[in-house]
Amino acid sequence: MAAIKIAIAGVGNCASSLLQGIEYYRNNPGENLGLMHRELGGFGPEDIQVVAAFDIDVRKVDRPLHEAIFAPPNSTKTIWKDVPNLGVTVQMGPVLDGVADHMKEYHPDRTFVPAEADPVDVESVLRESGAEMLLNYMPVGSEEAARHYAEAALASGVSFINCMPVFIVSDPKFAARFTDAGIPVVGDDVKAQLGATILHRTLAKLFADRGVKIKRTYQLNTGGNTDFLNMLERSRLHSKKISKTSAVQSQLDEPLESDNIHIGPSDYVPWQEDNKICFLRLEGEGFGGVPLEIEARLSVEDSPNSAGVVIDAVRLCRIARDRGEAGPLYPVSAYFMKHPPVQIPDTCAKQLLDEFVAGTRRASEPVEVASDCDSSEDGSGL
Question: Is the pTM of this model over 0.70?
Fold first, then answer.
């Protein structure tokens, strides 16, 4: 089958893990470890081909992509060190609000150093490269930059997979423009394969399904990559906190008051590098109002956790393109993103995904959870 041609905006840790992972599975064709789906619609991970890449850092711009993914400040664990020359050179993107001012105060190996180059015309590059979709890996808080790339994708007929928390696919006006243009899109804000948000959602749903009322909950995260460094500027966290909080609130019969739920990045710990540590606490009341508490600690490599999801989202988006679908892909976005256009319970979203892959449902068809999902499943897995 023809390769799935993608472009990448932001050659950071997430892009590095994705590209290394593609080569890992290409060189281990019988390996299913760590994949939710080895094959989707006839496509394997090795069928994904990068044809264009954008960044702003002096250590990456004008450098071959297979070298740039290992350049500082990238610090993710190495999955596959011998990534071949992909024939792609990283091009200068627009800076806009892509760099927080406070990051200039840190050691160069830990931050971004903008290249002294004029930004390319992203729309023209997407057209000339033959890209079918653009992955947005801009830093949290890059509202203008994210919208610039989304507009370029819209103008060039390229699908937009929005991996960061700027609300584009979940914005009804933006979504309608992609629908009218005949372009399938996925977003917003990638939900890790097994990360803090999916664990928190699962526990919250378990409480609700088993009749335990949540009184209070928090999720505190620390990490040492540039994502956490960037998020030290709290003004850039507004959409991130909304995205993560709504992902958990959506699992509850009655949303918690804002004072009783706290979810978001807590601090930057340089020596953690790409390791993310999450501390969860849920306080509830069970039978007869008797208190119940859960505390959990999760330690994960942040960027491979993202790649394990994106590698599926890309292939599902290609299936939708081949079938002529347009606009938000509802079950794909709900299963793989924190802030989709419609929040769908994970067991329901997986059921609808399976139907889409089987060809019995269109992913761009609006979802009515009450009627579209198997009511015999309570979502608890018990």
Answer: yes
